[in-house]
Specification:
The complex is a heterodimer of chains A (160) and B (435). Chain A is 41% helix and 15% strand. Chain A has helices spanning 2-14, 31-37, 66-81, 99-120, 144-150, and strands at residues 55-56, 86-92, 127-133, 152-159. Chain A has a four-stranded mixed β-sheet with strand order 1-4-2-3. In chain B, α2 (56-75) crosses α4. By secondary structure, chain B is an alpha+beta fold. Chain B has helices spanning 2-28, 56-75, 99-105, 149-164, and strands at residues 40-44, 48-49, 79-81, 109-118, 121-130, 135-144, 174-179, 186-191, 198-199, 207-212, 218-223, 230-235, 240-245, 251-256, 263-267, 274-278, 284-287, 295-300, 306-311, 318-323, 330-331, 339-344, 350-357, 360-367, 374-375, 382-387, 393-398, 405-410, 417-418, 425-430. In chain B, the strands form seven sheets. In chain B, strands 1, 2, 3, 4, 5 and 6 form a six-stranded mixed β-sheet that branches. In chain B, strands 9-8-7-30 form a four-stranded antiparallel β-sheet, with no helix packed on it. The chains are: A alpha+beta (160), B alpha+beta (435).
Chain lengths: 160, 435
């Protein structure tokens, strides 16, 4: 039965028609197609989402402390692994000191952190700075523990 | 003229007193600042309704008006208002007041007020009698709206002070400051006595460091409403803000020159904070500081020829003075490790500032040669001094009550009192008298 059907089809196919030109060979598939046809490979080595760590400063100081230098090294490496990321560094102060001076001091802390990153090789255009002075404390209240938490530079990712 | 003879007598007393003070100060090097005339001892009788009994509303009004006038005259520091309130003795309107009673109380002058309600509002008559000479030295009528009786009394106080002493007082001045009463730092203004609180900004961002234009019709301030700390100017006539400077980095501390020609302010332009001179439209005229450190918080000398500011160029914040061409910069403060927020007295001779001691700040005044710093506060942390237009008072903030509140004190640290304003209040700036 199947044979019959095949034979019939063969007869019809040959009947009265010039042999069709051999079909053009399909264009060589683009390289990407070959990969898309095989099962997707495991995702490329995961680049962790960009996370940068806050650093802290001494009273009325804007230089990067020894403990903050390690953190800034990690921050700079993370940024170099995210070559398109753009960030904002926020400089903050504790409540001691006057409002205007602290706005300038917060700016200097943010710039100090920015300089560390640009010295590491991060493009300056990817690093923005802003000072909030003492107007956005991380911790409420008073005392050296609180003040230390508030003397800081925070890193906000604007785009990855 | 009797008024003249009175003033002559007063001036003689003042002259003698001043000579005594000057001699004393030469010997001790003590700071001399304060009223330029001896205080006049004055009593104030109960205010009365002309030709009739007071309704209860009117008697409340009479008491309130008298209290305001009393507070104003005492606040001027040119009047010593006599206690106790033995006003029942005076039946001024009835004409049978016994002056001897007032003299007995120590009153050199007696102020009597009477008022009536007219179509145009309140007609208020103030009369001052010289108790020694039994002679009316001052008599003047004022008309004002009943709802605005505080302002009416400020006008009376101004006129009395100006007529008897020749001084203008601070009665038409206002104070601008920031408060977080509504959750965010917004700009507010109030009258010199803390009344008449008015909110100026309401954008729920961060609004800080307001300063007055010389005519009192505008306020410069810094706002984060577009993200960056930019300098704006608020216009009272239009109720609108205009951008003054929105350069990269900090745009803060705008302060108008007393001659009205320039504004001085702080820019960081992405680097460190430096002081610049602007024209009134925000165009840079000149850069005044060139240290690689922080330079900020400029304040004008009344001559408009010099500026005092804060710099940490030697490692810690200190106050410096520079000419407005950026030359002749010299350090003013040497006592203490952290001195900031200079405020140049409108009288010219003194600069108030905040100096850090341990964990808090205290208010000092120092003469402009850098001699004799004198501390005016001693408890809590006290910051941001700003002078009244008469140069006899300072507004500042103090955290005595737990959070920073506005306080006012006399030039010598006396009569400290808190203004009853909600929220954490910061960086007050006292205007000139606003007409």
């Amino acid at each position: 039965m199947i044979l019959l059907f095949v034979a019939l089809a063969f007869v019809i196919g040959c009947k009265g028609r010039p042999p069709a030109p051999p079909p053009e060979p399909p264009p060589p598939p683009p390289a990407i197609d070959t990969t898309s046809q095989i099962p997707p490979p495991p995702p490329p080595p995961e680049v962790a989402p960009l996370q940068l760590t806050t650093i802290y400063f001494d009273y009325d100081k804007s230089d990067i402390r020894a403990d903050a230098r390690t953190i800034m090294g990690d921050n700079a490496r993370s940024l170099s692994e995210h070559p398109t990321a753009v960030i904002m560094i926020e400089g903050h102060c504790d409540e001691r000191g006057t409002d205007e001076y602290n706005m300038a001091l917060g700016e200097r802390r943010a710039n100090s952190a920015k300089n560390y990153l640009t010295n590491y090789g991060i493009e300056a255009t990817r690093v923005n700075t802003i000072s909030y002075g003492e107007s956005r404390p991380a911790a409420p209240g008073q005392g050296e523990d609180v003040w230390q938490q508030n003397r800081r530079a925070e890193f906000k990712v604007m785009s990855e | 003229m009797p008024k003249k003879s009175l003033i002559c007598a007063l001036m003689l007393t003042v002259l003698i007193a001043n000579i005594a003070i000057a001699q004393k100060s030469e010997i001790t090097g003590e700071i001399v600042v304060g009223p330029t005339a001896e205080a006049i001892t004055i009593a104030i009788s109960d205010f009365r309704m002309s030709g009739g009994f007071l309704t209860s509303d009117d008697s409340i009004l009479a008491v309130n008006m008298r209290q305001i006038l009393r507070d104003d005259l005492a606040f001027s520091l040119y009047f010593n208002v006599v206690q106790p309130d033995s006003a029942f003795l005076a039946d001024f309107a009835g004409g049978n007041m016994r002056l001897d009673d007032w003299i007995y109380l120590g009153a050199r002058m007696l102020l009597a007020g009477r008022f009536e309600r007219e179509a145009e509002g309140i007609l208020f008559t103030a009369e001052i009698i010289d108790t020694y000479r039994n002679r009316i030295e001052y008599s003047h009528d004022f008309v004002g709206e009943p709802a605005n009786y505080r302002y009416l009394m400020h006008r009376v106080a101004y006129d009395i002070l100006y007529t008897l002493v020749g001084e203008e007082g601070p009665f038409f001045s206002k104070i601008a400051f920031s408060s977080n009463a509504n959750g965010n730092s917004e700009i507010y203004v109030c009258d010199f006595d803390g009344y008449g609180l008015t909110q100026i900004t309401n954008d729920k961002s961060i609004n800080v460091i307001p300063t007055w234009s010389i005519d009192g019709k505008q306020i410069y301030f810094t706002s984060y409403k577009k993200g960056n700390p930019d300098q704006y100017v608020y216009n009272f006539a239009t109720g609108k803000n205009q951008t003054f400077s929105s350069r990269a980095g900090l745009n803060t501390s705008g302060a108008a020159s007393p001659d009205g020609r320039y504004v001085v302010g702080t820019l960081s332009l992405g680097g460190d904070a430096e002081i610049y001179l602007f024209d009134s439209t925000g165009r840079i005229v000149k850069r005044l500081t060139f240290s690689k450190m922080i330079d900020t918080s400029p304040t004008w000398a009344p001559s408009s020829r010099e500026i005092a500011f804060t710099s940490d160029r030697t490692g810690s914040p200190q106050i410096y003075i520079t000419d407005t061409d950026g030359l002749n910069t010299r350090r003013l403060t040497f006592y203490g490790e952290y001195n900031d927020q200079a405020a140049w007295s409108p009288l010219g001779d003194f600069i108030a500032y905040a100096g850090r001691e341990r964990d808090g700040f205290q208010i000092y005044i120092i003469d402009i040669t850098g001699q004799s710093p004198r501390r005016l506060t001693d408890i809590g942390s006290n910051e941001s001094p700003s002078w009244s237009p008469d140069g006899l008072h300072l507004v500042y903030t103090s955290n005595l009550s737990g959070e920073h509140k506005l306080m006012i004190m006399d030039y010598n640290g006396a009569n400290k009192r808190r203004l009853d304003i909600p929220g954490v209040c910061k960086t007050p700036d006292w205007s000139r008298n606003i007409r």
